[in-house]
Design brief:
449 residues, mainly alpha, 20 helices, 0% strand
């Protein structure tokens, strides 16, 4: 009982310190030390053993994907490809559909493998111009961007190359297209439900007399120079190739049991997909080759912080699994009433909320409980792909609590406060994903994946 109590204290401390805005790189090992001490383990040997094994194992498996994803996103931004696509999409829908246009532009970029952080910076100037033309309050910009970048393309769309859809492949032996029907239904709930809410909110605040106001100089946005942007169809090709390679390779490349035992997995396909996209960006933008080295440098450096944040959380999960109280914790989680997919959703959501990170929270939950749910997938009659899709969907729920890094970046870049815009972010990227998980679980119970 002391060990189980220590797990809860460690989790509570992790949540508190994350909410205070402290870096999880040092918060996670500190909280893991609390868990180890309460579990009767030596703190230093636990840190050097289970904690570092979990951290290093995650870095070993996922650093190439994090690095290549960051480089690809940075290249799409610096070469003008991301803005070219966004301008094309928003111009086609026009100012009358400004909110839908911004959501769609964000969705296309993230679905093509562009980092959501890159999307926030690339889309904001366009959103500002469109909302000004349509005379819509700037308070709605963060919600529109969050809906397009932080929700369905991150966790629900089958085949999305975002990391939150790829991490479960290593635990469940699945591919990025796992649970396609479940994912598409959840996508519809998130997309149409989110748009319905955003349009309802627009009418509500306009009825109060709130319309577009000019931002301060710091958040005025940059002037959009269209002269040096690549053709939109050329810019789209790398995105389409990333999606294509990621989802077509598993159909033709099958690993033998020996290869799987040696560490090969479906997570490798994202490396080939991103490399293909990067090479095409190089090829199509060769005249801008002076920008390539900077993009490689910035992307590589950015990937280090991103993966360490997630890996630190995974290390915490590894320590939780190493203490005696883990057995009791497993029994508590699996005792959640109903289908095991419900307990998986609860576990991932709680961990994502505690860390303020979708990938970090999923990492903790699956590092600790992934093997148990894989056993359930083999014995319960529920396909492993259903566990994959629910884990992915659930990672995108409570992660966007006020202390989430992407939320803070979005609000800071748009010049909005939590009071101004967080309620919209919360509805579309926290409440709606939890709601969207419900029909996905019902479909799985019915044997429809």
């Amino acid at each position: 009982m002391t060990s189980l109590f220590g797990i809860f204290i460690g989790l509570a401390l992790l949540m508190y310190l994350a909410l205070k805005g402290y870096s999880i790189v040092w918060v996670a090992p500190l909280c893991a030390a609390v868990v180890a001490f309460a579990g009767g383990l030596d703190i230093i040997s636990t840190y050097m053993g289970p904690y570092m094994t979990g951290l290093v194992g995650f870095v070993k498996s996922w650093f190439p994907a994090f690095m290549l994803s960051a480089i690809f996103g940075n290249l799409m931004e610096t070469t003008g490809g991301a803005k070219s696509i966004a301008i094309f999409l928003t111009s086609k829908l026009g100012a009358k559909s400004a909110i839908a246009a911004i959501v769609l532009a964000c969705a296309v970029l993230t679905l093509g493998g562009v980092s959501l952080f890159v999307v926030v910076f690339a889309i904001y100037p366009l959103a500002l111009a469109m909302f000004k033309e349509a005379n819509i309050s700037r308070k709605l910009i963060p919600g529109a961007i969050a809906l397009g970048a932080f929700t369905f393309t991150m966790t629900a769309v089958p085949g999305t190359p975002q990391i939150q859809n790829l991490i479960p492949t290593t635990y469940f032996g699945t591919t990025a297209t796992a649970g396609p029907i479940m994912g598409l239904v959840a996508t519809a709930v998130l997309f149409f439900g989110g748009l319905f809410y955003m349009e309802w909110k627009r009418k509500k605040i306009e009825a109060k007399g709130e319309f577009y106001t000019e931002p301060d100089a710091k958040h005025a946005g940059t002037v959009i120079d269209k002269s040096d942007m690549p053709n939109v169809w050329v810019a789209m090709i790398p995105l389409l190739v990333v999606i294509g390679v990621l989802n077509l390779m598993p159909l033709y490349v099958k690993f033998t049991p020996e290869q799987l035992a040696a560490g090969r997995s479906n997570s490798e396909f994202i490396i080939y997909a991103l490399l293909s996209g990067i090479l095409l960006v190089f090829l199509f933008n060769f005249k801008k080759r002076n920008l390539f080295i900077k993009s490689l440098t910035v992307g590589s450096q950015g990937a280090i912080g991103a993966i360490l944040n997630t890996a630190a959380a995974v290390g915490f999960g590894a320590v939780v699994r190493a203490v005696p109280g883990f057995t009791d914790l497993t029994n508590i989680v699996l005792a959640v009433p109903g289908n095991p997919l419900i307990s998986l959703s609860v576990a991932v959501n709680l961990m994502a909320g505690a860390t303020g990170s979708a990938s970090g929270g999923m990492g903790i939950a699956l590092a600790a409980l992934g093997s148990k749910y894989m056993e359930l997938a083999k014995t319960s009659g529920i396909e492993a792909q259903a566990f994959h899709r629910i884990a992915s969907l659930s990672s995108g729920g409570l992660d966007t609590l006020p202390h989430n890094g992407a939320v803070l970046t979005l609000l800071n870049n748009t010049g909005m406060s939590h009071k101004d815009s967080y309620i919209d972010i919360m509805v579309v990227s926290l409440i709606m994903p939890i709601v969207a998980t419900i029909p996905a679980i019902i479909l799985a119970v019915m044997g429809i994946y």
